[in-house]
Request: fold
Amino acid sequence: MKNRLKVLRADRDWTQADLADRLHVTRQTINAIEKGKYDPSLPLAFKIAALFGLPIEEIFSPETD
Amino acid sequence: MADTRTETSLQAGLKKSTTQLFLATGAWVGSTALMSFGPSTFWDFDVAVTFLAIAANLIVGGLMLYSFFRHLKNMDELQRQTHLEAMALTLGITMVLTVIYGALPQAKVLASTQPANVLFVIGISYILSVTTLWLWRTSE
Reply:
């Protein structure tokens, strides 16, 4: 699954640690999601969407798109 | 610049559950040692006392399992997934290696087998699996 997490985070001038603190996960989890090595759970994806004020599909998209 | 962020609730929860797991594991190791060496060292093979030591070992073992479950629940989702995948790998590796190890006396490669050796396989497989999966997922 592809995602725009890195771009959205950079737009807000947040570090991976800043975003991790806001989502109550480790910085390594943010890094793994950004690098596409880990797909977040549905609850975490909803949390990310709520934090950025965007629908999930504007942040995450299937690899085939 | 120094990192001035305060400890998050995730880090605080993990620290607490790690300490509890460490203490519970230590207590289990101690009660296992007492159960194994107590009969010959402390109570001259009194069966009733040995049963008490076994009961204590079971209770402390249950507490250790509970502590591990709590520790797993306190992890963030990437840590939890890494540990669960490592457990799956450990189960598979242990099953394959135990079957081979069990067949060695029959093939006259070894005189006998020690069931306790399986614990080493479990421990080493788990540590290697957690480390490899974590490093692979979190490499920069």
Chain B has four helices and no strands. The helical segments of chain B are 9-41, 47-74, 77-103, 117-138.
